[in-house]
Amino acid sequence: MNQRFFNIYQYIAVLIFFPLAFYLWHRELADITYVILILSLPVITAYIVPAVGTNITKLWEFNNKKFMIGKFRLYHGFVLGSVTSIFGYFIYKVSPLWTNMTNAFIISLLGGAFIAFWNVIYDIHAVKCGFIVVNNKSAYEKKSAHEIVFEYAPVYFYCFGFIYCFYIKLIEYFIDKPMNNYFWTVIVFAHLASIFIPTLIYAIFSKKINGYWGIGRYKENDK
């Protein structure tokens, strides 16, 4: 894959995959509120985390010239969010219906691995061709694209994928139940969890394995 592929793919994801995700979930759930809630979590997370990571902590950069806010793509949330919500749809379709928390937990463990796998593959090729620049320790040491990506992607994307799959199962649980204060508390908490928990777990993992927190541009004296 080269940069041309990623330059084209990013617009396909926004213009084709996001409407497809909306169609699939609307066909499945009918209620527009639930559809918006399922689509919103990966989109919002994919706006906030990379926006901070590119323009504030400088961990990532996108070699893209159009529709940029600093080093961040204006439409980035829909690029990641659309495909993630499609993955979530197929995980939902092949998984058994909600029975209990244990059932949802196991499905989320497996679904998180599936989402992480494809995100890791995407990032490896994007880093290899220079579409994404990662300023972590492995990149500083001029290691391979695989090593650069494996420093952050498996842990982060697995945690995020797990939370998203569990969130989908919670939505399933709440269908046909009142949208009361308890429901909206769960929704808000899930959105906050998808933003902060994967980043926190990755940072702890990075500190333990690589000796630095890993959330910003690596410098030789980082500890």
What does this structure look like?
The protein is 72% helix and 4% strand. The protein is mainly alpha-helical. The protein has one domain. The strands form two sheets. The chain has a two-stranded antiparallel ribbon with strand order 1-4. Strands 2-3 form a two-stranded antiparallel ribbon. The longest helix has 30 residues, at 181-210. The chain is globular. The mean pLDDT is 92.
Structural class of the helices, strands and pairings?
Answer: mainly alpha
Overall mean pLDDT: 92
Task: Encode the helix/strand succession as letters.
Answer: HHEEEHHEHHHH
What's the tally of helices?
A: 8
User: For the terminal residues, how far apart are their CA atoms?
Assistant: 35 Å
* Count of folded domains: 1
Sheet with the most strands, sense and barrel status? 2 strands, antiparallel
Strand order of the largest sheet: 1-4
Rg from C-alpha positions?
18 Å
What is the oligomeric state here?
A: single chain
The rough form would be described as globular
Give unreliable regions as ranges: none
**Total strand count, please?**
4
Give the strand content. under 5%
Instruction: Give the proportion of residues in helices.
Output: over 70%
Helix-strand blueprint:
Elements: H1 3-29, H2 32-55, E1 60-62, E2 68-69, E3 72-73, H3 76-94, H4 101-128, E4 132-134, H5 137-140, H6 145-150, H7 153-174, H8 181-210
Antiparallel strand pairs: 1-4, 2-3
Helix pairs in contact: 1-2, 1-3, 2-3, 2-7, 2-8, 3-4, 3-7, 4-7, 7-8
